[in-house]
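During the second half of the funding period, the structural biology subgroup turned its attention to how the target accommodates small molecules. The most pressing case was zinc ion, which had performed well in the primary screen but for which no bound structure existed. We therefore specified the complex as follows and requested a full 3D prediction, including the ligand pose.
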Amino acid sequence: MTTANHALVDDLVAANHILYVEGVVDGFGHVSVRHDQRADRFLLACGVAPATVTADDILEVDFNGVVHDEAGRRSYLERFIHSEIYKAHPDVMAIVHSHSPAIIPFSVTTRVTLKPVCQMSGFLGFSTPIFEIRDTAGDDNNMLVTRAKLGRALAESLGTTDFALMRGHGSVTVAKSLRLAVARATWAEMNAKLQTEALRMAGTDGDAGVNYLTPVKLQDRWPSTRRWWIGHGISGRRKRGSRLRVWSGSCRLTSQIRKALSASLGCLRVNRVSTLRVY
Ligand SMILES: [Zn+2]
């Protein structure tokens, strides 16, 4: 059982669910946050699908990638992404690693660069690094960051940016808070979809036909993610008997997800029309 603050654990559970609902993670992908009581560890779920994560699944991992208090649970093979980034970047408080589909094309083409097309994705900047695992692991590799050496190389690729593509694999998003990391990972995926559509509309004009954000607007205009988080039903204002919208109506809630969500929000049940009542 982790010694971290319960509220932080609850937020990490909610972060897993939000990333699943937003299509950033599916059965794979993970999110972590620095431990709030121990400077040498971070929190990460054990090797389960993000949509099903509960507080009991949260493990403590140190910066060497060693899992503590496993109690028979397996951790993600790619936990070295997190351990090495935390080690190399003391200002990073939370990390999302995903294989979100709209992002991946931008990691494998040299003709188009991922660039911000709307205000939420200004954090991407104009020089998104692309991590090439072959530079460290050679041609004979399985694309996964399963060793400290590979995680270290990825952390170096990230440099001072908040987002890095991983060639043919996915991406990594970092931030100074868990909520901002989750929001940024979602906005990066959204930006990739919008940019792809904008380029399609631009036709043969290509990049020249797209009016990207200008550098003056590149500051992170959305430092507070409170409203965004509340929009997912995760709020500190959970009054007895109140109702909160949780997911978009188009999202299918399986009984397992409803159960996990209900537990993470401290509610008794989440109904079929994606409204929950707080008891
Ligand atoms: Zn991966």
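Two results from this model are relevant to the next phase. Residues 6-234 form a domain with the L-fuculose-1-phosphate Aldolase fold (CATH 3.40.225.10). The chain has two domains: 6-234, 235-279.
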